[in-house]
Structure formats: C-alpha cells, structure tokens
Write a structure and sequence with these properties.
The complex is a heterodimer of chains A (339) and B (290).
Chain A lengths: L3 E5 L1 E2 L2 E2 L1 H17 L3 E7 L6 H4 L6 E6 L8 H15 L3 E5 L4 H12 L3 E5 L1 E9 L4 E13 L4 E6 L6 E5 L16 E4 L2 H4 L8 E7 L11 E5 L6 H14 L2 E4 L1 H5 L20 E5 L5 H4 L7 E6 L12 E4 L2 H16 L1
Parallel strand pairs in A: 1-4, 1-6, 4-5, 5-12, 6-11, 7-11, 14-15, 14-16, 16-17, 17-18
Antiparallel strand pairs in A: 2-3, 8-9, 9-10
Helix pairs in contact in A: 3-4, 6-9
Chain B lengths: L4 E6 L1 E3 L22 E3 L1 H16 L4 E7 L5 H10 L3 E5 L9 H15 L4 E5 L10 H9 L3 E11 L2 E8 L2 E7 L3 E5 L11 H7 L3 E2 H4 L4 H9 L4 E5 L19 E6 L9 E4 L2 H13 L5
Parallel strand pairs in B: 1-4, 1-6, 4-5, 5-12, 6-10, 7-10, 11-12
Antiparallel strand pairs in B: 2-3, 7-8, 8-9
Helix pairs in contact in B: 2-5, 3-4
Amino acid sequence: MNNIFVYCEVEGGVIADVSLELCTKGRKLADQLHCQLEAVVIGANLSGVEKQLYPYGVDVVNIADDPRLEPYTTLPHTSVMIQLIREEQPQIALMGATTIGRDLGPRVSSALHSGLTADCTSLEIGDHEDKKNEKVYKDLLYQIRPAFGGNIIATIVNPDCRPQMATVREGVMKKEILSKHYVGTVKNLEVSRYVNDSDFVVSVIERHMEKSKVNLKGSSIVITGGYGVGSREGFDQLFELASVIGAEVGASRAAVDAGFADHDRQIGQTGVTVRPKLYIAFGVSGQVQHVAGMQESSMIISVNNDPKAPINAIADYVIQGDVNDVVPKMIKYYKKNTK
Amino acid sequence: MNGFKIIVLAKQVPDTRNVGKDAMKEDGTVNRAALPAIFNPEDLNALEQALRIKEAHPGSTLTILTMGPGRAADIIREALFRGADDGFLLTDRAFAGSDTLATSYALAKAIEKIGRPDLIVCGRQAIDGDTAQVGPQVAEKLGFPQITYAEEVNIEGDVVRVKRRLERGIEIVKASLPLLITVNGSAPECRPRNARMVMRYKKATTLTERQSANEDYLRMYTSHPYLNIEEIGFKDLDANIDDCGLAGSPTKVKKIENVVFQAKESMVMPATDHHLDALMKELIINHTLG
C-alpha cells in the first residue's frame, strides 16, 4: 500500500526507455519514502516482461496481459489504471510524457480527482507548509517544471489528493541498472475484472511507425540552431557543419515554431533532453525550457551576437559574432586542423 | 442525418512564443501586459476541423465555448468570424485559480448546461501551459471516448475515422459518436475570417461588454439575438463550489522562481579567424571533436 507506481509502456514485449528511466527515478524516491516500487505493464504477450524491470529495482510488476490491450487505446488502459490505483492506493504514479502518457494521464487523474503535473524536469521529496490552513505536509512529491513558455520554473505539490501524478519526457531522467540480481514479484491481473467490452469503442485500423531519423539522444556532439539562425537556409549551413564534424542538429522551440526546423529536432522541456560531450548553440537565447534540455552537456559553446543572451552564462566558450559568419569559419578551420 | 451538434473548446492565451526581454518584471513575475492575448494556436486547428465537419454534414451546428476573463470574448468573435454559429463565455470569479482538473470540471458542467453534443473538438494543448490535459479530462468527466493528436477527421454514417500524428509515426483509428477529439498543430491551418461573417458578427458582445452601451445598442440585441454572446457563471451550472477554482484544484503552486543559471566562468572571444582557428585546434587536440 501507498507505494510508487510507474506505468510502463510496452510494444512487442519491449519496455520503452522512458519507462525504465522512470523506474530508475522511482527506485530512488521509494528509498526516500521507505516504500516499494511497482510497475504496471498493460499489453499483449507479456510473459517474462518482469525480467526487463527487476534490474531497475522494481519490487512488484503488475501485469495485465490480453491481446486486446495492444496496441494502446485510451479507455482499456485507463480502466486498468483507475481500478488498480483504487485497490492499491499508491501515493505516487508516474508516466512518460509521451503520446501515450499524455493521453492516459489526464484521463486517469480526471477520474480519480488527483493532481497531474505534465512534463516535469525534476522530481524530489520534501515537506510543504500550508500557511493559510496551518497544516504541514510531510514527504510530498515536488513536481518541478518550467512554466509560462519556459520563462519561470515552478514547483507543484498535491497536498491532499492521491496519487500524486506526474509525467516526464524521455531522456530527462537517467536510466541506470540498480542490480542485475534484483528480484521482485509478479502480480497477474485478471483483465476481465478491470476492463469492460464498452472500453473497446475506439479501434486502431492502421499503424505506420518508423524509427526516428533524428538521433539527438545518442549523439556525442549536438549543434543547435535558435531563432537567431533566421531561416531554413540558415539551418542548411548547420547541417553542413554537422556532417563535417559528425554531429546531430537540434533546434530551439522558437526555431521550430518559426518553421526553421522540424519538431523532432526540438531540444528542451517539450522536446528532447540531451547530454552530449559537446553542445554548440547557434543563435539560441537560452530560455529556461531550452536549458532544461541541455544543461548537462559536458562542454557548451554559445555563438551569439547578443552578449547578454542568458545561455552565455552556462557556456564554456562564448563566441560573439554572427551565426552566418561563424559557421563557415568553423567548417574551414576544422578541415584545416584535421588535415 | 440532420447533421451533428459540435462544440469547440478554445482558450485565449498570452503569446508565450514571442517573449521579449520585457516579459519578466524586475521581481521575477510575469509581465502579462507585455504579452498579447491570442487564440491558442492549436485551438484554431481544432476550429478548422470542426468547420470542415460542419460543411460536410449540412444541418450541423458549431458552438464555441471558452473559459476565461471578460476579454476572452475576443476569441469567440474570432470563431464567429470564421464560421461558428454561436459562442459561450464561461466566466466567474469562482473559477479563478483553476488548475487543469478544476478547469475541465467547469467546462464539463458548462457543456452539460449547453446540451451534450455529438462531438467535442479542441486543440491538443495550450501554449501557456503545454499540459495537453484539459481535453482528455473533459472527456472523462462527460464519459466520452477520446482521440488525441488528430490530423484528419472524417465521419461517414456513424463511423468516425481519425488520422493521429504520434511521436514515431501515424495511426488511423475508428470510433463512433459521441466523441472528444484533440487536434494537433500539424493539422491544416484555420481559414481566415470571412468578410460576410465579420459584417454579421462584428457587434457580437457579451452582456458585460454592453453594460456601458447606449439604449439604441440595447434595442439592437433584442432584434438581433445572434449578436448576444452568452455568459455562463457558476450559478448557471449544476456544479459543486468545492470542485471549482483554487479549492477544486488538487495541484498547488508551491514556489515560482525566476531561474538563475549556475554561471560558469566563460571564455569570451570575438568571431575572428584567429580565434576560431585556435578554438577548433584546441577542441581537436583534447578530443572533444574528432
């Protein structure tokens, strides 16, 4: 009772990375709260799936295995989650801020009247004092996220409602095996007790899934263009530099909104989080929501003609100049020095 | 088939996409006056989908519903100018401080008051919070199934087919009415204002907006009832006050901070050939590059 739940996404028997990242985080929170970490896996052909989860410190794997539960549709997964949460009363429930988690989470929170915070960039345990009602709450989940277009950072708590729910984007938390030998227990759920036939009113007729061509997370060098790049043509230069030095190209939200780059290249709170060896930001001002997605880069270079751009504060090197001038020079001198 | 009853949910938001340097005050709070209030972009995509369905199914009606302060009537007029039939402004001090859950509660109660529709359409998320929660939460409260991230919607007979845009691909799903659909920003853009509709609705106002108007104005609304944008307050709803506004919001903001980055000691250099040559050399030698 009052454990931590992680809703685990599964496709073709494989647990999604974002879910393993959340289990890693969930383990740490469970240790602080002296409770157990439970995973919930809803899908089809799931036998043995618990073996993927135990190494991350999962104590209990709740499994709802039924051919009708994969691919994901909203209502059946919602029904399983709602009833399981009512039975088990977890204090915290975490989900990936993915197309699935962001479809499922609000539905579950609405049914349970529990608070849900989207796209958290950090989760911590702490106390909360409600000064107006003179009440002190121990060991709440601090749900921390940039807000208001990423200009401020907010700490959200759910003092009275349970579970405390939060979604987190892929890559924000680190995936770390606790122990190869960690073993928990499996709880197989009797699916017919949790879902109704009427939950299957929406059915998937066709699916075309492809592996993303953009691999920002796996690249050791990321070069990112911001609004200051000015155009799609400006980004073409960045792609040229990227192919020369072996980097992947990212973009700030402002650049994506302006149509300079595609959405799957967005770095930041509502995009991808990266931790490369080298991060070069071209014409990126450095809003909080962007910095949230790249501040753990080992080395940061900022190229900007605004000496007061906030990103400069966290940069190891600040090159004051125009993007269109600096990119060709970088290409030139990289080639010259590698000859 | 006599067409569908469609409700579009829309929100007026501060334009956080183009935040200038004056958007934050010295004390770290948001300077709302520096941000223009706009029709939430993805709600415009939603309006376009709803208008297409309305056109494909003669006899359909399109009602726009928004929750917000008095000035949010602006976006109802914007929707009327583009082809909505009527609009409701859900506005009351009792709703102040609502989080997504309290917002969806008020919206669901307002929808019950207006009359449950066949179809609810809204944008995937609003740019001031990016939560993408209100659509699904409203659907749950009304017991409607939901389809999120829609890019294309077609209704034939009683079958709704929706193309969804997901992170790693697309999905085509089939459902029936009633239904709530959230529309993705990758769906077609909303049509511009229609000049004829602008002429027809430019004087459409709420009662509050009319209160300072002269008598001729008042008479005009009696003879042209379609110019009335109806305001709905808490007392008009069959709602519980403890579920509204701040009291009805499980999430509380504990702390808001203007972030100060952990500043590093940066090496600042001009973009000269000499400096860039030296920098590239250094990065190659210490194996950061190559």
